[in-house]
Specification:
There is one protein chain. By secondary structure, the protein is an alpha+beta fold. The protein has two domains: 217 residues, Rossmann fold, CATH 3.40.50.150; 99 residues, Double Stranded RNA Binding Domain (2-Layer Sandwich). Helices cover 25% and strands 30% of the residues. It has ten helices and 19 strands. The strands form four sheets. A ten-stranded mixed β-sheet has the order 7-6-5-8-9-10-11-17-18-19, with helices on both faces. A five-stranded antiparallel β-sheet has the order 12-16-15-14-13, with no helix packed on it. The protein has a two-stranded antiparallel sheet with strand order 1-2. β6, α6 and β7 form a beta-alpha-beta unit. α2 packs across α5.
């Protein structure tokens, strides 16, 4: 077997030069934990419209290590079941598990501000690589990791055992946490959630930190870092952009069927004050999810090439349809909620405030609500009450 020590040192140097890898203990973990051990039985490489399966057994060892230490996200499962060893040729599919790019993994672990005695809960084991990095420092008994997919969990557990970490690997719904080993000093989620589950807050010690990606769109999501207070609430900020696969229980099913039929009966139409194209940008997309948490953004075009953009909120049976109209856009809205009115109001207020970036957003999580705000402005405040 080809030794990967030089590749590990090179990757650590890359991450350090980018300013992501700062802690000496974490650099030691990156230099010692073999990422390739967490990629069995193989990965899928993105070729545009298809995914090319690559396995360790079917690839030159040097080429395999080049892939493993490419500092890229490597897809390890498609459609909730397909692994690279079961595909003989390029396939189509939707990624459902991956080894996240080391830049993101290391950056998130750094954001936890770990000390040697901390007890950590990880939501979303995935391949187990990030689990191993934390075990290297904290010890296997101080890391509990939970994965919803039994096959993914079994592969991760085997990989962790192979590299010497018999940590607490649990198969189950990470949205519920793992109360039997609580309380935790730190909770880290490697999946995106619509909002931080209060179960994570409840299972964290006062002064402890919860770190996770919030949002339900593929883009426009933010990395939330909140500290739990003595009163049981947690407060903190969005510390940057972040992109992860959605938690399985919250994954959004793409809208199917005739979209025009869904928007046949509008209650109003008017010119937009803000073009809907801004929703394809990161911060406006994040704000849209704050202003209309259940909305999905869909891009399409008519047979003549005319661009169309839609917002749908299936739970509230509401829609907004955008049609290019000369140099501007017209919005048609229908249903109990005027989706675009709420989102447009947030976007205008954001622009009036100087278009601050995502790291200016603060949030507070309680048993009753999730509150987000920017600069304490009433126009830039969104409270999501929990039923």
């Amino acid at each position: 077997m080809t030794d990967s020590a030089s590749e590990r040192r090179h990757m650590a140097a890359q991450l350090a030069s980018k300013g992501v890898l700062k802690s000496p203990w974490l650099r030691g973990a990156v230099e010692n934990v073999p990422r390739e051990q967490f990629l069995h039985p193989g990965v899928f490489l993105d070729e545009g419209r298809t995914w090319r399966p690559v396995t360790a057994l079917g690839t030159d060892p040097d080429e395999w290590l080049k892939i493993a230490y490419s500092v890229d996200t490597l897809t390890t499962q498609l459609d909730g079941h397909l692994t690279a060893d079961r595909a003989d040729e390029p396939v189509v599919g939707v990624p459902t598990s991956s080894s996240t790019d080391p830049t993101t993994v290391v950056g998130m672990i750094e954001a936890l501000d770990l000390t040697a005695e901390h007890h950590v809960l990880e939501i979303g084991t995935g391949t187990g690589y990030s689990t191993a990095l934390m075990c290297h420092y904290l010890g296997e008994d101080n890391v509990t990791t939970i994965e919803v997919d039994p096959q993914v969990a079994a592969r991760a557990d085997a990989a962790l055992e192979t590299v010497g970490y018999s940590t607490w690997t649990v198969t189950g719904d990470g949205l519920l946490g793992h109360p039997s080993r609580a309380p935790y000093d730190r909770v880290i989620a490697t999946c995106a959630v619509r909002r931080i589950p209060y179960t994570w807050i409840r299972q964290t010690k006062p002064g402890g930190v919860v770190l996770g990606t919030v949002g339900s769109w593929p883009w426009g999501t933010g990395l939330a870092r909140v500290t739990v207070g003595d009163d049981g609430a947690a407060e903190g900020a969005i510390i940057g952009r972040s992109s992860f696969m959605q938690a399985r229980a919250q994954a959004v099913t793409p809208l199917a069927g005739d979209l025009s039929a869904r928007t046949a009966y509008a209650d109003s139409d008017r010119p937009t004050l803000v073009p809907p194209l801004v929703l394809e940008e990161w911060m406006p997309a994040f704000l849209a999810q704050l202003a209309a948490p259940g909305a999905q953004f869909v891009r399409a075009s008519r047979s003549d090439g005319t661009p169309l953009r839609y917002l749908f909120d299936p739970e509230r049976e509401s829609f907004a349809e955008f049609v290019a109209d000369g140099d501007g856009w017209t919005v048609r809205q229908g249903g109990p909620v005027a989706l675009w009115d709420d989102i447009e109001s947030a976007l205008v207020a954001w622009q009036d405030a100087g278009a601050p970036d995502i790291d200016t957003v603060r949030l507070r999580v309680t048993t009753a609500s999730h509150l987000y705000w920017i600069d304490r402005r009433a126009s830039l405040r969104w409270e999501h009450r929990l039923a």
